# Entry
Amino acid sequence: MASAAKKYAFRRRFEKHNYSLIGAELSDEDDDDGPVTESMTAAAEAGLDAAALSHMEERDFKHVVKGGPAKIAEYLGVRNHILIRWKQALDVSSDDGDDAYMSFDELAKSLPESQTELARETHAWLVKHGGINYGCPGGKDLRAGDEVKTARAAAAANVGSDAEKKKAPGSADVSDDDIIERTVVFLRGADMNSTTERQIRAAVEADLGCDLSDRKLVIRSVVTKFLSDPESYAHVKNTSGTDASDAASALAKAASDAAKGAKPRPTKPVIVVGAGPAGLAAARAVRADGHDVIVLEARDRVGGRVFTCAPNTKENPLSVPIDFGASIVTGTAADPRRRTARPWLGVRADPSFATARQLRLETHALRDDLPLFDGKTGEKVSGDADARAEKARDVLMDHARLRVDREGAEALADVSLEEVIAAELLERYGEAKKDAEEENAENTENSTEKPIEDADDERKETLSFSDRRLLGWHWANLEYGCSAPLSKISMAHWNQDEAYGGFGGKHVMLKGGYGGVTDALSNGLDVKTNVVVTEIRRVDGDGDDGGVTIVTKSGDTFEGSACVVTLPLGCLKHGDVVFDPPLSESKTSAISKLGFGRLNKIALEFSTKFWDDSVDYFGCAAGESGESETRGRAFMFWNLAPVTGKPVLAALVAGEAAEIAETEPDASLRDAAMAALRVVVAKNAPSDSDETLFTSAVVPDPIAVACTRWGGDVYARGSYSYVAVGASGDDYDELGRPEGRVLFAGEHTCREHPDTVGGAMLSGWRAARHATHIMRGDAGEPFDEVFALPTLDDLANEEGDDESEEDDDANDSDGTSESDEDDDVKKGGKKKKKRRRGKSEDGDGPEDDDAARERARKRLEQEAAERLEQIKRDQKEATEGKEEVKKVLRVVGDGFGVVTGSTHNSSTAELDVKFDTFTALASSLETASGRRAFIDAADALPAARRDSWASERGGLQVLVQWMEQISVKESGAALAARAISLLLKLPADVRALRASGAARVMQQRFATHPKPDVRLLARKCAHKWTRDAAREKARARDAAANASVPSAEGDDETLARMKKNKSDAPFENDFSLDEDGRKRQRRDAVSTEPNEKAVAKKQTVDEMIAAANGLAEGVSAASAARAAAAAEAALA
# Structure
């Protein structure tokens, strides 16, 4: 699980180079230069944005979303208030050693009574999602869960009397007119396709504060009449002050409440298989929710691949404990400013660090300096040589990435990182120099070595053998990060998790070992060790009709309501546990495709220390770039003296060398590490003239040696997961998907943070949410989706799919003409996209020679036509370019002014006429010079006029058409950059972008542009568009999920179905979604009286939250609500 290689030793050392298409390089799209507030940091600690809802909050707090900006602002104020209190408790616990735990009763004292219910919901949500009250080594979270269990049992025993109490405030004092008014108000704000009569009644009951079971017929008659003729209730006034957004919010709350406890609750315990970080996190979360948990562990210890091996044992003969597995906390502080591919800011710290803080464990922060030594000569690598190797690595990785961009991830699904890198290496640098040349170069102090030229230089360059050894070290370091040889790693998806940003803060090692964290997490749990699970049987059904039976190697069985499987991926791949019924085909496929690699350590303890503590690691480049068997063998040494207090070094064995080491004796591994050390130390002996890492010229024999072999561990069968050839990030999602009562967790199920302890814990909390969903009897399927990150390819392909469907609709025949096929190819339709070169359409053999020749002829004709068109444009440019520029400048003059919307005088009218003339001019421009002048002028337009040009006057279509005609050669780079910069400023309307073909053009012409500046701008566009596409998909998914809640009652039919065949009159809600997904009131909705505050300055949600952040602790949430209410009134 040593993800530090990928996230620290590899990425952090060379953080100037980012292989991801969407990383920190895109952060300039937002104003991130302001001060970091306490609420921002506190929210980021929970993986949230202080000023925005996450996709899970949008899903779980629909009543907040439907309540409009004021309700959202109030929720964010309450949520941030809770998180600040938790952060303060965590800070205090790290000082006094007590659990950082915040009960709701304690929290409620700091909030106004009007916000108690919202705070209770928010507090419970944050607990379930690992935002607060986690990592409590003292057991406060478990004791609170026991209290919940006791209260739940008492409530179940008194269910009859509780029902009577609920009916006590009956409806005798409520008139029919009151019920009619409230029902009509809620109907006006209802979504007809998802709202049921039962939800309407629940909302009315909550509003009137009484039970209306005996007045069902009154409500039903109103609903029926309203659906038939809404105008019949036009006279009904809203006397309570509940506006349409309040009504929509109340209905959403009623729907949410109806889903809770809709099924019978099971009574058996939840069984967790595996006591690693994922299993322990899941077990604690389930127990904290008031349910019984049993943890079954095959080993005689907890921790799994977090294993701090005790000293002076057979496994570890060293005198100090050694982390055989995970050893690095991959982030110790939230980063509220870090930009990721998700539509909110910030990343959290590794959640395991919260436990370490509460335990007050000492840490050692890892430093950046990582000196390199040539493993063959022993010499320290010079700065120039290091820079050359870095540059070569960057060039090769860039070219490999560009190949993915050009050919697409699907086309390279079966291609390894090794294949592409080797091909690029050969093409760019040729074969290695001969030994004689190498020796000559060394004798002349590398005076004949030619430095590596810029990436754009097409001359064949060469790398010396020493350069190639350094390059081989970088590949070994990458193999360390992925725990596998490059030959097994997917080229297209190897770094799929980078888009999620990782964890924030420094990386540290824990003095005394990482095992202290997992030992603490196991405290108070019912963990049964030495229990080897061999079979998991599942029975589906509600309540106790469903459940699981766990069969062990000894023949014992355990009955449970649900099972959380946290077995390492290696054990799943080996089939160590039989599932009955068998796992789904999709999950079995994901298990097979995703990789599970090996990384091993050679720990060496010496009698004396012959190095200083100025660095935490140093590298030894022993194998050349293509020597996969040797390059990862003792390629890096970690200095463990700062964390163990003894002279201990740990040599890492990665890639193919790690696989070979699994069957190699300890003595052989020890000798390999010692040989590498002695070559390096002998060449870098201390002297008066040179500074060196080493304090002695002699390397003594080690007094103790310990070697790990995770591949041979039958309860792990490897180190951690990686994206293998043929796999993708989607396989992580599939492995985390529940199958009935069988749930899954582990680092191999966490797409955002694989191969980390923190990722394992996050997946454990997710599985716990699945389990508590079952245990509480909630309706629906328990599955939390990872936030979907659409790509530019997705947007472009969706455009092609839409066009193909339109073509299909227009074609009445069943056949497809040859021209239609060509059109499909151009449009990127799915049907033709999968055709491979040299294959027939059905994939059974070579395609017909005549057809291939015809396709080639048409392609040549098309290219000739494009060249001719370019020649004509160049000629026109030479003769008419300057004149078109003058035309644009004459129209633009001194600009277009600022549109305020508040006044409209003669000056404004003149500007409107001028603007009309300017927009009409675009269609007549045919030269690059004229279009460049127009683009510059459009870029300088006031935002309102620029948006109007793009969305209302066909400007977006014109711009995209121009971009299709821009040359992809260097001569067109300047115009391309200006056009994309303008495109970035236009509204990111996903539908308009698809209709205009902008995503397709960006993907095909600029995502792989030879100029880095143009590629970067294209990536920024992709980042902006895909985030908006993700929001759109989330809204669509929520709309689809808003089906009627299953119920035994007969009135649970949706309003749309109730209306069907009753009336053809249109049914309209008072609110609709604008292009940004925000609620807006329709003009024909029921009007309200003019508000005196309507002239007040309008506030955004961000401004509301900012105002709340500055208020005093303890009353901030209440004041935020008041500020939000005032702002909402101003917006009315």
About this structure: Residues 390 and 513 are 33 Å apart (CA to CA). The chain has a mean pLDDT of 79.
